[in-house]
Amino acid sequence: MERMNIAILGCGVVGSGVAKILLEMKDELSDRAGRKIELKKIVDLRAASAISKYDIPKALFCGEGRDLTKEETVKYINEVIVSDDIDLIVETIGGTSDFVFNIFADTIKAKKPIITANKAMLAERGKAIFESAENSGVIMGYEASVCGAIPIIKAVRESFTGDKIVSMYGIMNGTCNYILSKMQDEGFAFEQALKQAQKNGYAEADPTLDISGYDAGHKLVILLKLAYGIDIDFKKLSIIGIDKINRDDIDFANEMECAIKLISFAEKKDDRIYAGVRPMMVKRSNFLSEVDGATNAVEVVNKYSGKHFLVGAGAGSLETASAIVSDIIFIARHAKTMKNNYGNSNNELLDPSELNFPYNIIFETEDVPGITGLITTAIGNQDINIDTVGHNRHNKEKAVFAISTMPCSIRQIENAVKEIRSKRANVIIHDPKVIPILF
Amino acid sequence: MERMNIAILGCGVVGSGVAKILLEMKDELSDRAGRKIELKKIVDLRAASAISKYDIPKALFCGEGRDLTKEETVKYINEVIVSDDIDLIVETIGGTSDFVFNIFADTIKAKKPIITANKAMLAERGKAIFESAENSGVIMGYEASVCGAIPIIKAVRESFTGDKIVSMYGIMNGTCNYILSKMQDEGFAFEQALKQAQKNGYAEADPTLDISGYDAGHKLVILLKLAYGIDIDFKKLSIIGIDKINRDDIDFANEMECAIKLISFAEKKDDRIYAGVRPMMVKRSNFLSEVDGATNAVEVVNKYSGKHFLVGAGAGSLETASAIVSDIIFIARHAKTMKNNYGNSNNELLDPSELNFPYNIIFETEDVPGITGLITTAIGNQDINIDTVGHNRHNKEKAVFAISTMPCSIRQIENAVKEIRSKRANVIIHDPKVIPILF
Question: pLDDT at position A343, please?
Fold first, then answer.
């Protein structure tokens, strides 16, 4: 049986999970792959936690399990990448540093397959990596980079191939979904929910990457490349996070039989792709509204086969690791026939604001008579059909109420707000919050 | 570009959908596959409906689109299978006849890949087919045979490979789910719901295969082979259909915040597999309870990556066809590296009655005092913990009420019923209906 010797670079939460599965399922994995799958080397600055957590033999670590200096780490990584004893590299360090970028570059140069869960790297610097992999005939596995355990990468790359993907709407960040679920189901304020998420290990000490929507955006960029063959400058992706979502928004969502979810989405119309990340009010009749806590979910609508949902664990040590191991098996089986991407297109990426949605507009205004008439008239003047006017929470300081519309553009709404302000300058206290409604 | 010329045998609901997609997406499919995908020949007794439905060129049909005699059909099929101009056969005739079995045998003999949606054939006569394919090195595609458009076959075969499948619970028959949804959501009686399903094209004139649970069983057998490597004698699979489900059952389910669903399930405990098909009361907190109408869904629980749901269209012309075309692409890409099955095991299949479930037991008894005490005492005597006693619908003729239990075995329940009958011979009017509860 041909060998497939594996090295893991970075043995933190995910890397240690990969080591555990490779050790526990060694024989079974080799049977499945038709190649002898063997974990040969692990490189990590600090091996101790992985060793204690999953009982991984010290002998597998470069340096036999002791803490390494940075220089040693670099030296070992360089050795492992070019070692004749290693056939495949698992990169589970993460981040977009040059240091990690060079691991990709060097592995590609060594003509070895590389498997990663590093969504930030693939989204922000993936173009250069994929191009150089392509030129060198090097296969990459990145199932674990999007929605953890959900097999969405292989679904798009190998299963939805007899079809055309019309749209994708997904809950792709477990931290945000945990926070929003706590706010929706348990009446938490945003800050309180965030603290709970940090306490329970669902959010980092610095939660910016998650709550800003950037992490959800990273995953979307990878899916867009795969589904539509477009390379996106990550900085140009339109992203709104959840940091501005407050109790009023949640209450209005409940009133409208919706749950607020952070949605990464893409829609194809003719040859144009509209894509972005937005908090949305998801109707209770849509499956995505039922996806709570740290779970992820993706709705894919295909031209011929219609609507699909894939739901599963979006993060976690063994959950993400199992996706990495599935890539090891896929590459062990199909390295000779598989490609990193099949899509190639001249699709253009457009701002999602160009896409018509039904919107929920939450106004904070002075609490005086005549406001509802003024606002609804201005909205009507922009040819926007109003669906419902949400219950007005008013006191003497301000009125807060929501108007949900039939599908319209952001531009129409902006024009309506302009008209309101031109009629009564200070009536609107803050810029209204405009949240798309997802049916 | 290497060619991949395709013939479709049987151009009914599914076959005509395959033809449509192959014609509409010809260039795109060839790009994706890296081979020139071309539909070359179609054989069908009566071509007219496919031609008119999807505007498929007559020239593609053997006999140029006119009706064929049975002898002509056989002759054309035999010609196509061995033709040098055909590289891959799509079998969309269906059924378990020798005639169709021989199409498999002859295609394998001709060493050509064969793709099918024929769950009955694979479940009932698959062992011989897979063995002969294996011996001849012939690749088969059968994504479309289980849950239509849901990519469950590739998920199990290519995506959940870094993990161990602990259990699978699925709604695998759209007809049954449509009928049960109508009963649950619109108060229909079984017969009324069945008629509606027939009227709307969701059920055949003879609905036996669906409502008996056999079709759901066929799909389960295919998944069992794939996930656990076991060959099952279909006749030995324990199957209960939905034909005995009545309004009372539905009402008790509603009372318990459940929906009744026909569930195909498998659970692995140690090296034993428990599997069967049962109507179950699915708790509203379980996603499967929300899957309504003709939609299918599968919950897969993996050892490392936890719970997954895959939801999508379980049937339909283009929906099922898109799964077949995805197999064409997969085979065009990976024929040299893929296998029909990777699993091989000595797992033993056991009767699902051996598995402990919480159960809902619906009693129809005489309407006299003392019954509840008699029955609950007998149940307690068998060491079964009672969870709740459902509301008693009684009149002078009979009493109907339900008892839901904590997890126990069917044997325990049978013993309790025996005890009740031994104490008061005619108190139970019918054998009680025992329905597993799924959380």
Answer: 67
Contact yes or no for A418/A365 (Cβ under 8 A): no
Q: Which pairs from B232-239 meet CB under 8 Å and 24+ separation?
A: B232/B123, B232/B275, B232/B349, B234/B123, B234/B124, B236/B349, B237/B275, B237/B276, B237/B277, B237/B349, B238/B275, B238/B276, B238/B277, B238/B351, B238/B352, B238/B353, B239/B212, B239/B213, B239/B214, B239/B276, B239/B277
Annotated catalytic residue within A219, A225, A268, A433: A219
| pTM of the predicted structure, to 2 decimals | 0.96
* pLDDT per residue as tens digits for the range B56-66: 999 999 999 99
Q: Which of A31, A304, A324 sits opposite B318 (nearest CB)?
A: A304
Q: What percent of chain A has pLDDT over 90?
A: 90
Catalytic residue among B219, B225, B261, B433: B219
Measured distance CA(A307)–CA(A299) in Å, rounded: 7
Which of A14, A166, A286, A304 should be substituted to probe chain B, the one whose Cβ sees the most B Cβ atoms within 10 Å?
Answer: A304
Q: Nearest CA to CA, how far is A317 from chain B (Å)?
A: 9
CB-based contact A265:A169 (threshold 8 Å): yes
Residues in chain A within 8 Å Cβ distance of B159:
143, 151, 154-155, 326
- Verify whether residue A219 is a known catalytic residue: yes
A308–B306: do the CB atoms touch at under 8 Å? no
Give the Cα separation of A112 and A89 in Å (integer): 7
| Alpha-carbon distances of A414 from A270, A404, B403, rounded to whole Å | 26, 15, 59
pLDDT digits (tens, 9 = 90+) for A333-386: 999 999 988 766 778 899 998 899 999 999 999 998 999 999 999 999 999 999
